[in-house]
């Protein structure tokens, strides 16, 4: 059969997690929390499953959950959204991103993707017949190089995919990034997919700037989020998409035939759980302590580090210590030091190797401390 995705293999996250498992290594590769969710949330799920909330939910999500999301968006980003016409509950941010891309990209359309980039964007663009235009982020701090983005825009550009807080670098968009993007798409027929799955994981008092909070940008944007990241339940695969009514209409046409609807008891449980804003407002300080613990330990090695601004990832540069390929280093660290990480070259379409590795610090403190002890041998 002629493959529609000839360049796609098994993702690096699966490869490294398997290697970590086989080698008995501490797994700081694939991004998922090493601790459980709040028992209150788990009890709510048990309650709703046992109370018979187990049949199909409405296609767009249960109304009270969409209403709750509208309240949350008003509180967090000062934006009023219509729960019926602008909020859709989906089966994870991956589905939101896939459905949004499928809804807007026609064969031959160009889509700008900033690299390094999360691995699910390009296959979705390709399946829609789009052409990915890769634009590198600044090589020093992973900020957006707006001159480069401007040069990449043509009359064929249909969509820009952005991600803040950024995986893998942790870069968090500043006001000037919002301004640059809004200037760029103003008066142009360009849409935006904004991957904001780490919206509640930012550090050092840095606010997350959601595109839904920007009066101009929100008119062209699909904001994609995930409850998996915020509430330590990545296996639940439940998220949302916020987009203006005319975009939501097209989005739902795709969502309707990708999954139709999303797990019913999880929607009821998360709806109740979101009643208390402190449940997500406490997340930044929770993760900031872990970021600091891990960073301070890693600073004892000769790796070059910049404190991550957001997400639960810390990147480290090693090019001044060794010329070994990042993939090989990740493999050797897993097998010899028994700590697994992700080679950042996996986030580039051409596997550009800047000698950077990524660690996930969403783990129990004890596990992070043990990993740091093992990484001490890097010196
Ligand atoms: N985007 C980014 C940047 C991610 O790191 C992830 C996490 N896997 C996703 C999207 C997908 O989120 P979900 O698990 O909700 O599909
Ligand atoms: N987002 C996770 C990461 O970056 C991986 C999720 C997955 O395995 N698809 O590590």
Write a concise synopsis of the structure shown:
By secondary structure, this protein is α/β, with parallel strands linked by helices. The chain contains 14 helices and twelve strands.
What does this structure look like?
GO terms for molecular function: kynurenine-oxoglutarate transaminase activity; pyridoxal phosphate binding. Belongs to the class-I pyridoxal-phosphate-dependent aminotransferase family. It holds the Pfam family Aminotran_1_2. The strands form three sheets. This protein has a seven-stranded mixed sheet, with helices on both faces. A three-stranded antiparallel sheet has the order 9-12-11. Strands 1-10 form a two-stranded parallel sheet. The radius of gyration is 20 Å and the shape is globular. It has two domains: 12-30 and 282-378, Alpha-Beta Complex (Aspartate Aminotransferase, domain 1), CATH 3.90.1150.10; 39-279, Type I PLP-dependent aspartate aminotransferase-like (Major domain) (Aspartate Aminotransferase, domain 2), CATH 3.40.640.10. 39% of the residues lie in helices and 14% in strands. It has 379 residues and is an alpha/beta fold. It has 14 helices and twelve strands. Helix 1 packs parallel to helix 13 and helix 12 runs parallel beside helix 14 (365-375). Glutamine (GLN) binds at residues 11, 13, 30-31, 167. Residues 31, 92-94, 118, 163, 167, 195, 197, 226, 228, 234, 237, 239 line the site of 4'-deoxy-4'-aminopyridoxal-5'-phosphate (PMP).
What is the strand and helix layout of this fold?
Layout: H1 12-23, E1 26-27, H2 39-50, H3 63-77, E2 87-90, H4 93-104, E3 110-115, H5 121-127, E4 131-136, H6 146-152, E5 157-163, H7 175-185, E6 191-195, E7 221-226, H8 227-230, E8 239-242, H9 245-258, H10 264-273, H11 278-281, H12 283-298, E9 313-317, H13 326-337, E10 339-340, E11 342-343, E12 356-360, H14 365-375
Helix pairs in contact: 1-13, 2-10, 3-10, 4-5, 4-9, 12-14
The structure holds 4'-deoxy-4'-aminopyridoxal-5'-phosphate and glutamine (GLN).
The site of glutamine has 5 residues, from loops.
């Amino acid at each position: 059969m002629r493959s529609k995705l000839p360049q796609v293999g098994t993702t690096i996250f699966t490869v490294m997690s398997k290697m970590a498992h086989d080698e008995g290594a501490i797994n700081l590769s694939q991004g998922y929390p090493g601790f459980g969710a709040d028992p209150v949330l788990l009890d709510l799920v048990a309650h709703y499953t046992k109370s018979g909330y187990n049949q199909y939910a409405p296609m767009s999500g249960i109304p009270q959950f969409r209403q709750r999301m509208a309240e949350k968006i008003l509180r967090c980003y000062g934006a009023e959204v219509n729960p019926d016409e602008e909020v859709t509950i989906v089966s994870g941010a991956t589905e939101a991103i896939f459905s949004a891309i499928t809804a807007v990209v026609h064969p031959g359309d160009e889509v700008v993707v900033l690299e390094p980039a999360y691995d699910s964007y390009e296959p979705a663009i390709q399946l829609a017949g789009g052409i990915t235009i890769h634009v590198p982020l600044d090589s020093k701090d992973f900020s957006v190089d707006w001159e480069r983005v401007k040069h990449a825009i043509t009359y064929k550009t249909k969509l820009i995919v952005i991600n803040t807080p950024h995986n893998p670098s942790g870069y968090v968009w500043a006001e000037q990034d919002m301004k640059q993007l809004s200037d760029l798409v103003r008066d142009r027929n360009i849409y935006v997919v904004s991957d904001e799955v780490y919206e509640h994981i930012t550090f050092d008092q840095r606010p997350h700037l959601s595109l839904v909070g920007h009066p101009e940008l929100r008119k062209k944007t699909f904001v994609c989020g995930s409850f998996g990241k915020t509430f330590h339940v990545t296996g639940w695969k439940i998220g949302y998409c916020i987009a203006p009514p005319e975009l939501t209409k097209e989005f739902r046409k795709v969502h309707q035939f990708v999954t139709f609807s999303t797990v019913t008891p999880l929607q009821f449980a998360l709806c109740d759980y979101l009643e208390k804003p402190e449940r997500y407002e406490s997340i930044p300080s929770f993760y900031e302590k872990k970021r600091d613990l891990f960073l301070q330990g890693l600073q004892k090695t000769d790796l070059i580090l910049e404190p991550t601004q957001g997400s639960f990832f810390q990147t480290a540069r090693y090019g001044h210590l060794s010329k070994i390929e990042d993939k090989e280093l990740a493999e050797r660290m897993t097998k010899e030091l028994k700590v697994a990480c992700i080679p950042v070259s996996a986030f580039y379409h051409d596997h550009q190797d800047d000698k950077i590795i990524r660690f996930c610090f969403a783990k129990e403190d004890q596990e992070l401390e043990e990993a740091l002890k093992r990484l001490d041998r890097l010196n």
